[in-house]
Each structure stands twice: as structure tokens, then as C-alpha cells.
Amino acid sequence: MARPSRYDRDQLLDTALRLAAATGPHGVTMAAVAKELGAPSGSVYHRFPSRSALLGALWVRTVESFQEGWFAALDDVDPHRAARGAAHHVVAWSRAHPHAAAVLLHGPDAFGQPDWPADDARRAAANRRRVRSAVAQLCEALGAQDRMAAERVALAVIDLPLTVVRRPLRAGEELPAHAEQLAQESAASLLAGL
């Protein structure tokens, strides 16, 4: 009878997440994850056959964790409230999950996206399509019909909230107490004319 694995997938990914937040994507190696966890290298290779597989799984899991609440905020029937909620979520989630937020600020290419296993690449592509679809639906609900209006919506629910969190997180600082309010007010201001 095979001995049960002592280190599960989530433990390994949690360790990789901490390493990535502390050292950047380059610091996430199979050996570093094993050392940080106090596990033999074989435990990491048992779950992830390559560094690319580890990095792809880390990215996809982190993005999907973030997107769960972001999509939920956009489900609000009032599109202006949905936009404010999505902007708020970016900051609130980043505050609650600073290591994960730091990982996402690097972007998928820093995590070796071209080399990810096919399943992770498909999931990442599906996540991007879902974001584009959600923003398009919000544009429609707001009556944002031209390109500039659509850019305004994307800026309100994606780019500006990320800007609110980027500087403090990259500096290793806590987010200011007013960060969520700033993200919501920025979104509301941008979309006031729609």
C-alpha cells in the first residue's frame, strides 16, 4: 500500500506564493519550494512535473481566487454600483491577500506563461475571455457604446484600482485605510457621464 503524500498541492502552491511575493517569480524554483516547506524535492516533483507546471498552477489558482469576488461584484443589477463594487473588490482582496496580490502585479509572462502546461494555458485564456466578456456586458449596461467609453469602463474597474494597490504593495507597505474608498470614488467619477 502506497504511503499517503505528506505535502499536498495547496501546501506547495501556498509556499510558492510566499516565495514569489518575497523574491519575485525568479525565486520560485522546485528546490526553493522544497527547502521552504522542509520537504524533499521529490514531493514537489510528485505534484508538479516541472517548474513551468508549478508556475502555471500558481498563476491560475491566484487569478481565479481574485476573480471570484470581482465577477460577483459585477453581477449587481445596478451597473454603476457593480463598477464601484468591482473597483472596491480589487483593493479589498489585495488588502486581505497581499502575497497573492503581489504575485498578480508581476503579470503572467513573468511566471513563464509561454511554457505552461496546456491545461493551465487554457484556463488562463478562458479567464481572460471571461474578463473581457464581463467588461463588455458592463459597457452595454452602462450604455458605453464608443471606444472611449469602453476604455473608461475598463479603466474604472481594472486599471485604476490596480494603480491604487500597486505602489504600496511593491514597496512592501500596507494599503492606506482609504484605498477602497479612493478606488470606488475614482470609478464613480469616471463613469458619472454614462
UniProtKB/TrEMBL annotation:
Xref: InterPro entries: Homeodomain-like_sf, HTH-type_TetR-like_transc_reg, HTH_TetR
Transmembrane domains' residue ranges: none
Keywords from the UniProt entry: DNA-binding
Signal peptide segment: none
Keyword DNA-binding: yes
Record carries keyword DNA-binding: yes
DNA-binding region: 29-48
Ranges of residues in domain HTH tetR-type: 6-66
Pfam families in the cross-refs: TetR_N (PF00440)
Record's protein name: TetR/AcrR family transcriptional regulator
